[in-house]
Design goal:
The complex is a heterodimer of chains A (244) and B (349). With 244 residues, chain A is α/β, with parallel strands linked by helices. Chain A has seven helices and 15 strands. Chain A is elongated, with a radius of gyration of 21 Å. Chain B is of the alpha+beta class. Chain B is 68% helix and 13% strand. The chains are: A alpha/beta (244), B alpha+beta (349).
Chain lengths: 244, 349
């Protein structure tokens, strides 16, 4: 049996997928979810082989939901026209169905997946260095135990590289996220966040003082008292942004 | 209309030139009689002849300038042209006076000879003066018509921009609605048909050409169509409250202004929270203004309402500015977990 989950905030949009799936006796729908939060829970509980996922959903979008999963299942995106999304999933999803889609088109997507599934091709990674949705410039979605937190970007004080992860520091907390520094360097507003060191990016609004550390290196002092090292090139970049 | 205006002015110019010609004839005739003791008939013949020749030369200048107006370096040609015309005038005048059926005496003949150069200078000055006036006149005409073209172009651009802003159709809305219809077509064909009807009526209202002010009740009819469609998609989460003060139901507002505001509120409300949401739409009177207030819930912890305004409201702001020349008619604010958008439409029009 093949387990699947439908995640879409419009019940009618889920019902059409369910209807098309009736023709596949071997595929059974474990659960239907209204948003990404329900989706994360349902995926943890049912461990589906395949999910049908909408992009634009309440609170967190489909891409952000996938980032929260340790081992994301195969994904077929179902979405209306969206210039950002199309670019991103062309290279990263099993398939994407543009609403409204026909039974024929749906069947093709399933065949494509079944083929990949049977030949046990490794599931494609969904982590991409591209910014896929405009809202991802304004917030970071993180996992905190079993909770999902949405951190507004202006609450982030600085970001530090940490192996395959980055540490995201806010006023009082720190979150881990499986992303690279270069992803954030590309996605965040460069007039707000500056990469001041190979391992550090800082929020300019938090900066209070720059003091020399050693020859050619400096230290940035943040409002909270936190200290962020500046490399030589980072220091000159920071000066450039601040217009010094 | 432009040619008519030109004709009237042309007639005015000709009349002025002839009147001026008459005055000169009178003065010169008096001068000749008085200074040289020529007979009135001879003096009159001399001056009428000369002034009519100069007037004709002026008219020729005017006519030619209608079709070709020299500029810059080519103005030299105008001066040469004037000199040639002046010489022609003097020669023609002399020929006519010598050969015409006029009384001739030795004094007059010597005067005619002696005054040749002076006459030429006068003729040249007159023709040049006339040329300058004509040139300026046509130049003004051209400037005026160019200005008119520019104003027309600006108005056209503004109208186009307004039309584009008005018809800003969200592809998301359209494709998702079509998807709902597709889903209903299988299970509930009657409802699918009803939704096709609603969507068609809504789209027809959206592509209306006129950019006029409409009555509030008319705008609400259109808005209700939109809300009905959204409720088919989000019926399980979306509730609306509409409050219209009866006093304002006949008030005027730009067509399709309210819909993008409500659309923005619904999107903001639906995507920023996960539960049931209530969208509140109010229309009231507020001293000389129609006040429209749209309210949606949001999550103040994760959203910055300032950024949540999005494109929908920017285009509304732009439209209001183009129509009323004011930037203060659209205001947004957050009140607890409610996001409020207010629009004032001036009513003393």
């Amino acid at each position: 049996m093949i387990k699947t989950i439908l995640i879409d905030d419009e019940p009618l949009a889920r019902s059409i997928v369910a209807e098309y799936l009736q023709h596949y006796a071997e595929i059974s729908i474990m659960q239907e979810c209204n948003d990404g939060f329900e989706g994360v829970k349902a995926i943890a509980q049912h461990k589906p082989d395949l999910i049908f996922l909408d992009i634009q959903m309440p609170k967190i979008n489909g891409f952000e939901m996938l980032e929260l999963l340790e081992q994301p299942p195969s994904v077929i995106f179902t979405t209306a026209f969206d210039e950002y999304a199309i670019k991103a999933f062309e290279s990263h999803a099993i398939d994407y169905l543009l609403k409204p889609f026909s039974k024929d088109r749906f069947d093709k997507a399933i065949q494509k997946w079944l083929h990949q599934h049977q030949t046990s091709a490794a599931p494609k990674t969904l982590l991409t260095e591209e910014v896929r949705q405009p809202e991802e410039r304004t917030r970071i979605v993180v996992r905190e135990g079993s909770n999902i937190r949405i951190v507004p970007i202006h609450d982030v004080h600085y970001i530090e590289a940490y192996d395959d992860y980055v540490k995201i520091f806010t006023q009082k907390e720190m979150f881990l996220k499986k992303k690279t520094m270069s992803y954030y360097e590309k996605s965040l507003d460069e007039t707000q966040f500056v990469r001041v060191h190979r391992s550090y990016m800082l929020n300019l609004q938090q900066l209070t003082k720059i003091e020399p550390l050693e020859k050619d290196t400096y230290l940035a002092l943040l409002k909270t008292g936190a200290k962020v090292p500046l490399s030589k090139s980072g220091y000159s970049k920071l000066k450039g942004v601040l217009g010094l | 209309m432009a040619t008519e205006m030109l004709n009237i002015s042309t007639r005015k110019i000709l009349f002025t030139a002839l009147a001026w010609c008459g005055v000169l004839i009178a003065i010169e005739t008096y001068a000749l009689c008085d200074a040289f003791d020529f007979s009135i008939s001879l003096s009159l013949a001399d001056t009428v002849n000369f002034n009519l020749l100069v007037a004709t030369a002026g008219y020729i200048t005017y006519m030619s300038m209608r079709y070709y107006r020299p500029n810059g370096k080519n103005l030299v040609y105008l001066i040469l042209w004037d000199i040639a015309l002046a010489v022609l005038c003097v020669v023609a005048h002399q020929q006519i006076m010598l050969n015409g059926p006029f009384e001739r005496n030795a004094e007059y003949l010597s005067y005619l000879d002696a005054s040749q150069f002076f006459r030429g200078v006068i003729a040249w000055l007159m023709i040049t003066l006339f040329g300058i006036i004509t040139w300026t006149y046509f130049f003004m005409q051209e400037v005026r018509s160019r200005e008119k073209i520019e104003t027309d172009a600006a108005r056209l651009a503004r109208d186009t921009e307004l039309a584009t802003l008005r018809q800003q159709l969200q592809p998301h809305f359209l494709f998702n609605s079509l998807n709902s219809i597709s889903a209903l077509a299988g299970s509930k064909p009657e409802q699918a048909r009803k939704m096709i009807q609603q969507l068609s009526d809504f789209l027809r209202g959206t592509i209306k050409k006129d950019n006029q002010l409409v009555q509030l009740k008319e705008e609400f009819t259109h808005l209700v169509l939109y809300l009905e469609i959204e409720k088919v998609r989000f019926g399980h989460r979306l509730k609306t409250e509409i409050l219209i003060n009866e006093l304002v139901s006949n008030n005027l507002l730009p067509s399709l202004l309210l819909q993008p505001i409500v659309e923005n509120a619904i999107k903001f409300g639906l995507y920023d929270t996960t539960g049931e949401i209530v969208i509140r739409i109010e229309a009231l009177a507020a001293d000389q203004h129609l006040l429209l207030r749209v309210q949606n819930p949001f999550d103040p912890e994760t959203s910055q309402p300032r950024q949540g305004t999005g494109f929908g409201l920017m285009s509304v702001q732009r439209r209001l500015y183009l129509l009323f020349g004011r930037n203060d008619l659209l205001v947004t604010r957050a009140d607890g977990n409610q996001f409020i958008t207010e629009v004032k439409i001036p009513q003393s029009l």
